[in-house]
Amino acid sequence: MARREPSGTHVNQRNFANGPLSDLRVLELGTLLAGPICGQLLGDMGAEVIKIEPPGQGDPLRVWGRETAGDKSLWWPVVARNKKSITLDMRQPQGQSVFKDLVRQADFVLENFRPGTMERWGCGYQQLAQINPRLIMIRVSGFGQTGPYSSQAGFGAIGEAMGGLRYVVGDPSTPPSRTGISIGDSLAAVYACLGALSALHYRERTGRGQIVDSAIYEAVLAMMESLVTEYDQTGYIRERTGAILPNVAPSNVYLTIDQQMVLIAANQDTVFKRLAAAMGRPELAQDPRYATHIERGKHQEELDALVNEWTRTLSRTELLQTMQTHGVPAGLIYRAPEMLADAHFKAREAIVSVPHPDFGTLQMQNVAPKLSATPGRIRSPSPALGEHNQEIFLELLGMSAERFDELRTAGVI
Description:
Oligomer: single chain
CATH architecture of the largest domain: 3-Layer(aba) Sandwich
Strand order of the largest sheet: 5-2-1-6-7-8
Structural class: alpha/beta
């Protein structure tokens, strides 16, 4: 593998054929979700992501998941796409020494260990920045790198609970629910990626790297809209509301004559006028109870009942066509089968078929967002454990075959 020029030097357009970050190298440490999802996002946009895993074990996500194919995870191929895998025991001094050699040629170190772990290995930011002052260290954790909770274990579920999300998800008649996906981990990963690219911009101007500190609970908190401010100013505490957003109407799930669920969002004044016309009741838009956003919110329950009474006279197909004709936002609540069959998903290639050595092909979500000049893409499937050991250690680092064999025998790689 050819050595890369340090980021920030002149590169021509051909260097970006694999995406806008294709001149950058990421060393990904850590396991499971929050850190690795950030690595996936960077890899999707072209970065060379070298995932460092414990010898003989690897990331537990290799075997995790609600559904598996045999003993193989169906979660791992999504999170580990566009990555290279090497094995390295970071607990051994020799492993730490090899890691520091890699740091010299890296743009990012991405880790999601409990704070203090990297420092115990002699690989904290202060030590690594002495080796590579341009290094950006992306640190993802439950509670952040500072504060009284920083040393506590903090999985995504805890961050979702403390960040305020769990309390407001679900029906008011039931205990708080999870969203059905690991949203806390994913949000922390997205904010970590945002921080990494912001730090990269700063580095291009100054030549200096820095730490990106992404805490799961803060990433969730950052998405909670005006929840804190509402309490601060009025004492109001948001509660679980099920399918509706209080005082925003009509915006709900409505049933059809064939017992299908259609979500209609017609809460804006002009859109509600179009819905009223579609219902054959244009006078509703002039009714003082429904004429404005505020008044519709006050009469939300009775307005939902009116809309639901009307939708129950139509089939799903008829309702969707009527909404489209009148310019009213409406849609089905999709599961995977509907996504795979949808013409719009196909036209935009939102889901793609990825060749994979273990499965033949896999259907998975494509790279997002789409860039017009330098789009990201899925370049490679999830790697086998240590698949790229020789490429990285022998070619990138220039390690001798004798040294490579010595480290492998000692269980370091």
